[in-house]
Amino acid sequence: MPTLPRPVLDAAPSRLRAAWHAHRELSVFTAFSLAFSALPVLFQRFTFTDAVGLVVSWALLLIPRRPWTATIILALGAAHGLVDAQGPGLVMAGWFAVYVLVRRGGYRQAIVIVMAMVAGNLLAWQAGTKMNDLFISQVLWIAVCMGIAAPLRLADANVSRAQAAHAQALREQRALIARELHDTLARANTQIVLRAQQAQAHLHNPNHTDQINTALDDIITTGHQSVLDLRTMLRLLRQDTNTPLDPAPPTPDLTTTLTLTPTNEKGKP
Q1: CA atoms within 13 Å, Cβ hemisphere of 229
Q2: DSSP-assigned letter for residue 249
Q3: C-beta atoms surrounding 90 within 10 Å
Q4: Which residues contact 193 (CB under 8 A, 6 or more apart)?
Q5: pLDDT for 178-231, tens place per residue?
Q6: Chain-wide mean pLDDT for the chain?
Q7: How far apart are CA 100 and CA 23, in angstroms?
Q8: Of 44, 49, 79, 202, which has the fewest CB atoms closer than 10 Å, so is most exposed?
Q9: Exposed e or buried b for every residue in 127-149, given b needs 16+ CB within 10 A?
């Protein structure tokens, strides 16, 4: 029997938690709709409409992947519950669906469910059902659902734009750091090559020992400084947040460059 790799098994709980958090709202709405569909069992008045509610309410979970399929099922279910006047779970599922669809931007699907509920009210009224209180409560509930969903959708859009802007600014800042890293290493390597050439030129002259030692000291110092700059910039590139580094950057030029990074980003056209 094949077994899953250890990393997949270790990541499974976190993925399940992420899926639950992503669809927690829909799961709660589905649970409420199912509870109201099963509520007549306590009073021994369980009907065919209540059984339909136990099936249709699950369509709320289909909204993220199959919005039109879920819309058609929920619209027909809500209309049937209103015509029969004994399907509180179906009607509640329709209200919840309107809220979820409006928040997700599915305005056409929400309109379809509202129109289906209007048609169900008209059919129930023609069948002789007293619709005054029921119709008013439906209008209020739909207004409440839309009134809550619209601001939440606007807030979600603002959060998405802010996250996208933050990600773009982070990418641009990392690109700037990468360019600065390239320039810093290029200058350091050029200085090392020049000093090595100077030391080589004085290598066969015993009177130039001091110049050779000075050149070698400069090469060693520049090499150490280049390694420190490289490590500092790599730590910056690996960071996902703007938390400061523990050690200060080793060179004044590097410090100035990293400090002025946000200013340089804002000054870009």
Answers
A1: 27
A2: P
A3: 29
A4: none
A5: 787 788 778 888 888 888 887 777 777 777 778 778 888 888 888 888 888 778
A6: 76
A7: 11
A8: 44
A9: eeeebeebbeebeebbeebbeeb
